[in-house]
Design a protein that fits this description.
Number of strands: 14
Strand content: 15-25%
Structural class: alpha+beta
Number of helices: 15
Radius of gyration: 34 Å
Length: 371
């Protein structure tokens, strides 16, 4: 019969270090048993301890030097940004007393005293320094996600970010930080930020974010994830909870379409795997818009405004064609068939003309229409 593992009570409520385990009477071989989980180098917890980043970070703090500071994504999570705090845990340690290991990324940089803050007992870089570090070490879109998250949580605003950008000139990440501050918005989710960055990176006009939409009577219809007011184009991102909100989303879309808005919906698969298609669809609807158009309702794939425009163009072409026929075609028809009536039918005349004559008269029409 297998022996039951020894479980010290003081180690069942939080993560603990290898030294703490040995002090409680456990060996390294015992920690490799099924009763324990390894969280990182020299850091363990009991298997029934729930996953809790706060407990993990407090456990890490116990094994780190006293002047260590949480930085990067870990610090961002402490500031309530939508980031993963422990993949790996990021910490700055002055000097070279500690090296990176499994689950722990160590940076040997100095942090100014005025750039740190305590969050529930954990020492971390303040918000603006954290955002600057993310701009220096993360991708552009990940950096923008962090800035958007800070704006949405109202932890800062554009003016404060601009002020810090001026003070941080010349530091790593400062150039990117300064540029992204100008496009940061309070997006509702990281994927909405990714969608918006896709459009910005494609050189399209920057859309508005989280815009309230109303009909002509001023009734509230909904809030658009992204919105191009000039084209009355609403862009929605359908996240993981779209299935639960399908009925309400469909009703809201019907209200928007009936009020003259155009709606495009995209998913994470579209943004991640089909960015060119997303860009093409948005660009197509933006190019379809013409200044002076009112809100347009889609009818059989075309808007009412567009259909009226096409009718006006067709009428203008018909008038010009009639003038060309009267000026050019009818005299030629009379010369070809003198025995016919002085006013031959247009169809009869066209049959008598050669392809060369038709091409010449088509060119005349094109010049008149200026196409």
């Amino acid at each position: 019969m297998a022996r039951r593992p020894r479980i010290p009570r003081e180690l069942t409520t939080r993560p603990f270090t290898l030294d703490e385990a040995r002090a409680a009477g456990l060996t390294l071989s015992a920690l490799r048993g099924l009763a324990w989980r390894r969280l990182g180098s020299r850091l363990y917890c009991w298997k029934h301890v729930p996953d809790d980043p706060w407990r993990l970070l407090k456990g890490c703090q116990n094994m780190l030097p006293a002047d260590s500071v949480f930085v990067g994504r870990t610090a961002g999570w402490l500031h309530r940004l939508e980031l993963r705090p422990a993949d790996p845990v990021e910490v700055a340690v002055p000097g070279a007393r500690l090296r990176s290991r499994a689950g722990l990324s160590v940076r040997h940089v100095g942090i100014e005293p005025g750039e740190t803050v305590k969050v529930r007992g954990l020492l971390a870089t303040n918000l603006h320094r954290t955002l600057l570090d993310l701009c220096a070490r993360s991708t552009v879109v990940e950096s923008l996600i962090a800035l958007d998250s800070a704006c949405r949580a109202r932890l800062t605003d554009r003016e404060k970010l601009r002020g810090y950008a001026d003070c941080a000139r010349g530091r790593p990440g400062a150039r990117r930080f300064r540029k992204l501050v100008e496009v940061a918005e309070p997006a509702e989710s990281p994927m909405e930020t990714r969608l918006r960055w896709l459009l910005i990176n494609a050189r399209l006009t920057r859309p508005e974010v989280q815009t309230n939409l109303h009909d002509d009577q001023g009734r509230f219809l909904g809030r658009a994830d992204l919105y191009y007011p000039g084209a009355h184009l609403v862009i929605e991102f359908d996240g993981g909870n779209h299935r639960e909100r399908l009925v309400s989303d469909d009703r809201r879309q019907n209200l928007l379409v009936n009020a003259g808005f155009r709606v495009l919906r995209f998913t994470a698969a579209d943004v991640g795997a089909r960015p060119d298609a997303v860009e093409a669809q948005v660009r197509g609807l933006l190019l379809d818009h013409r200044p002076g158009d009112d809100r347009r309702v889609e009818v059989r794939g075309r808007s009412v405004g567009r259909a009226q425009e096409e009718l006006r163009e067709a009428g203008q072409a018909a008038r010009i064609l009639g003038q060309v026929v009267a000026r050019e075609v009818r005299p030629l028809g009379a010369a070809l068939k003198p025995q016919a009536s002085q006013r031959p039918h247009a169809l009869l005349v066209r049959r008598e003309l050669s392809r060369r004559h038709l091409a010449e008269h088509s060119a005349i029409v094109d010049r008149e229409l200026d196409v």
